[in-house]
Amino acid sequence: MRIRTVDAFADHPYTGNPAAVVLLDSGPWPEDLRLQRFALEMNLSETAYARPASGNTEGDREAEADWELRWFTPGTEVDLCGHATLATAHVLHTTGAADGRIRFRTRSGVLSAEAHGSGEITLDFPTSTLTAIGTPGEVATALGAKVAAAYDTSPGVGDLLIELRDEQAVREVVPDLAALARLSGRAVIVTAAAADPAGSGYDYVSRVFAPAVGIPEDPVTGSAHTALAPLWSARLGREALTGFQASARTGVVRTLLRGDRTELTGSAVTVLDAELLVAL
């Protein structure tokens, strides 16, 4: 069994967000505990497991899928993950295991990925619903930053979306991770408008902290952009935008808002292709 590590939302190695990808044969899933332990062994933001889909219902387009896909952080299985989906689609295409549009059956319904001649891949994800809320005092304290606005993204990704005053404030946040881990929800997203869109080439900036699920800071978070896209598209008056995630590794996600669906486009690079010596 092969294991591949892919840098997602990156056009060159050692940037973007690394994900481990394991392609399984048809048949039952390995025991959940083994999947979780291997994800902990890899110790990346996510490890993705994919197997050929079975049980499609004829005529039920919502149930039709080519592959089944699951995502595990080092601490838990999650409902939605963008960069590991991009990484999985990249592996399927580059190894010849799939071509054209790929449909994944997941905990969040059927998601699709389509490769382009440029090498980029576009994901079709559900758009998150944003609900403006009062700023939780413990969040402002944990971030150590002045909060301009706060939004709940439940149902959906289940993150807390926090707007800060400007790009510099986002880049300079040094959160109290232990305090963030005590909050409900998956992660805290911080964001602001880009300081120089014309010069930088991106419209907004973000960072994502998810210590509650074993990820102190996620390098590039595709799923978070299903909440960032509607926020900044409404603010800037454009459906197509470019987001920059200002982690140490950095990454770029191009978003296209289409009502209740959001397209996420980015590149990926395989940096490791190895053989597992211990079967799952």
TrEMBL record:
* UniProt KW ATP-binding keyword: no
Q: Which UniProt keywords apply?
A: Isomerase
SUPFAM superfamilies tied to this protein: Diaminopimelate epimerase-like (SSF54506)
Q: Does the keyword Isomerase apply?
A: yes
* Any Pfam family the entry gives: PhzC-PhzF
**What highest taxon heads this organism's lineage?**
Bacteria
Q: Which Gene3D superfamilies match?
A: Diaminopimelate Epimerase, Chain A, domain 1
Question: So what family is this one in?
Answer: Belongs to the PhzF family.
Q: Which PANTHER family match?
A: PHENAZINE BIOSYNTHESIS PROTEIN, PHENAZINE BIOSYNTHESIS-LIKE DOMAIN-CONTAINING PROTEIN
Matching NCBIfam families, A to Z?
PhzF_family
Name the chain's protein: PhzF family phenazine biosynthesis protein
Q: Which organism is it from?
A: Streptomyces gossypii
Taxonomic lineage of this organism?
Bacteria, Bacillati, Actinomycetota, Actinomycetes, Kitasatosporales
